[in-house]
Each structure stands twice: as structure tokens, then as C-alpha cells.
Automatic annotation (TrEMBL):
Belongs to the membrane-bound acyltransferase family. The keyword Transmembrane helix applies. GO terms for biological process: lipid modification; phosphatidylinositol biosynthetic process. Its main location: membrane. The lineage of its organism: Eukaryota, Metazoa, Ecdysozoa, Arthropoda, Hexapoda. This is Lysophospholipid acyltransferase 7. Pathway: Lipid metabolism; phospholipid metabolism; Phospholipid metabolism. Residues 1-31 form the signal peptide. The chain crosses the membrane at residues 256-278.
Length: 340
């Protein structure tokens, strides 16, 4: 059989989240017994879903390749609620398009200057240890630039379609939508009130680039990286897994499986729980010292530098050369397995 195009894997990944997420939404709506439903778990969107509704939701062009993940309720709201008629998505979209342009140019320059393939060559292996170690960081920066560009463009497509437009006062969150769904439904019935509301697209805001690039802790970075996907992982896997001590390990293992079968995903993603354990111990040690003390400040600074150069750099390379397990072994040997 012919090898399928590369983009079919992206479609399959998004479909996996959407269809399983829809099943969880329907299950939660059926199990909702409380008379008060502030988050709209049992909203009108889930009252009657046909087979064609599922097809249209799953294969909608909005986020079909690179996300973001959004609930069926969000999709339904974009079709049946009036907000898309009152919000102007162009100013925010134009701003993001400018961002994407700059990031794309930087990606092309970085990819030309620091090619990922170089990390598995003999010439790279013969370089000094410091060179090999620090080279992994610009390689991962290139990887991030590529993801940032694609995700921003995907967000722009969703915004221009009116997907994810909700009143700001409804406390919207990435992936979830409005936390205060009761307030949202009240606004829907009053056209005059709608015209006075401020809107945002936080529901489909998948990547907070500034926070990702400035945070120093792994746990914080996970929160801002691919936020809509993190929402799905957190709500449908982490919180539902019955054995609490293994929740993080199971969530990240399934995350690696969702990405694919390549070794690089498991090397990168499945190692995170061990770093989180070390990070929690370090923060506990950090908080035991007096504020502004030398030990307290240097302790976290050294760890942050190690994160950015070792964990983010080397593990990012593992994802970039994910298809070849032999190449990952070569890379780890080149930097003497420092990440471990």
C-alpha cells in the first residue's frame, strides 16, 4: 500500500481528541444530576446529536490539521449562538499574522543555521562536549518556532470563522470555553446586552508564547504549552484515572502514544514525571530558605539554566529526530546522557 501523506497523521491526531472528547461530553451530560449546572455540562448542544453532526464536527476545517482542540459545545455555539455576528476578529488576527510572519522567518533562518540532522553526524560527534551540549538548544528553538507558526495560523483560521468567541465576563479558558456558562446563556437571550459585551478568543488560544519562553519550571511550561490539548489530557485522562499516584505518568505516557509510536516521543515525554519529582523537591528546598538569601536565589537560577539547556534542548532534539531510534541513541551518547 502507498505511504499516506504526512498531514493525514495530523488529522488522525485531532480526530482522536475530538471524537473521544465528544464521547466524554455526552457521558458527562447524561450523568449530570445536579439542578444547578454553572458550567453548562448538560447544555443544549448535547441534547440531540446526529451522525452528520459528528462528521461535521470531526472534519471541520477549523483546526483539522494543527488544532486547537475545542469541545463539541464550542463548535455548536459558533453555529447557533449570535456572538460571531458581533465580534470583529480581524484586529487580533492581524496581530497574530504579524507574529506568524516574524516567527516563520526566524524558523527558516534557524533551520538553515542549525539543522537538526547535524546532531547525528560524525562531525558533530567530534566536536567539543560544550559545543554538542549547547547546540541542542538552538535546535529545539527551531522546533518551537515551527510549532508556534503553525499553531498561530490555525488560531487565525478559527478566529476568522467566529469559533471560540465568548464574552470575557464568562471567564473563558483554553479548551473549556466559558466557566460561567449560566451567565453566558443569559447574555445570549438579550441582544442589547450582547452589543455591550467585550469578547475574546481565549477558548481557542492554544499557545501562550511569551509565557512558554519566559517560565523556568517544567510544570509551568506544561500549563502554557498547547493549552487546549493540555485541557483534554487533564480533564479526560489525568482527573479520571483512578489511581492518583500514577496519574501524571499515565497521562504523559498516553500523550506520547497519541503523538505516535516513534521512540523520540517516549524519550522526551515519558521522562517529564521524573523531572517534575526533582523540581518539586527543589522548590520545597528553595522555600525552606529565607527570602532573598543567596542559597534561595542561586538554587532556582541554576535549576532554570539546567532546564533550558539540558531538558528543553536535548529532549527537543529527541522529538525532532523522533523517527530514528538509532539517531536518538547517537545524540544521547554525544552529550554523555547529561539529561538523565
Amino acid at each position: 500500500m502507498p505511504v499516506p501523506p504526512a498531514h493525514t497523521n495530523l488529522v488522525q491526531m485531532i480526530l482522536t481528541l475530538k471524537l473521544s472528547g465528544l464521547a466524554f461530553e455526552i457521558n458527562s451530560a447524561a450523568a449530570m444530576k445536579l439542578p444547578d449546572d454553572p458550567q453548562g455540562v448538560n447544555s443544549a448542544a448535547l441534547k440531540k446529536i446526529t451522525f452528520m453532526d459528528v462528521i461535521h464536527y470531526g472534519l471541520s476545517y477549523m483546526g483539522v490539521l494543527t488544532g486547537p482542540y475545542y469541545r463539541y459545545r464550542t463548535y455548536w455555539d459558533s453555529l447557533h449562538r449570535p456572538f460571531s455576528y458581533y465580534v470583529d476578529p480581524w484586529p487580533l488576527t492581524l496581530y497574530k499574522l504579524k507574529q506568524a510572519t516574524v516567527l516563520s522567518i526566524l524558523f527558516l533562518l534557524m533551520n538553515y543555521t542549525f539543522p537538526t540532522e547535524y546532531t547525528v553526524t560524525e562531525e558533530y560527534a567530534n566536536r567539543s562536549l560544550l559545543y554538542r551540549w549547547f547546540y541542542t538548544y538552538p535546535v529545539f528553538a527551531t522546533f518551537r518556532l515551527r510549532l508556534f507558526s503553525g499553531i498561530i495560523l490555525s488560531e487565525c483560521a478559527c478566529q476568522m470563522a467566529g469559533l471560540g468567541a465568548y464574552p470575557t465576563k464568562c471567564e473563558t479558558a483554553p479548551g473549556l470555553g466559558p466557566r460561567n456558562y449560566k451567565e453566558f446563556e443569559e447574555i445570549c437571550t438579550d441582544e442589547e446586552k450582547i452589543t455591550q459585551e467585550q469578547f475574546d478568543f481565549e477558548t481557542i488560544h492554544n499557545m501562550n508564547i511569551w509565557q512558554v519562553e519566559t517560565c523556568h519550571l517544567v510544570r509551568s511550561c506544561m500549563k502554557y504549552w498547547n493549552s487546549c490539548i493540555q485541557y483534554w489530557m487533564g480533564i479526560y485522562i489525568y482527573k479520571r484515572f483512578p489511581f492518583k499516584p500514577l496519574r501524571m505518568i499515565m497521562t504523559l505516557t498516553l500523550s506520547a502514544l497519541w503523538h505516535g509510536y516513534a521512540v523520540g516521543y517516549y524519550v522526551c515525554i515519558c521522562s517529564v514525571p521524573f523531572y517534575l519529582l526533582i523540581e518539586d523537591l527543589l522548590i520545597k528546598f528553595h522555600n525552606q530558605h529565607e527570602k532573598d538569601s543567596i542559597v534561595r536565589l542561586e538554587n532556582l537560577d541554576v535549576y532554570s539554566m539546567g532546564n533550558e539547556t539540558i531538558l528543553y534542548g536535548l529532549f527537543g532534539c529527541s522529538v525532532s529526530i523522533t523517527r530514528f531510534s538509532t539517531n536518538i541513541t547517537i545524540l544521547c551518547k554525544s552529550v554523555l546522557h547529561w539529561s538523565y
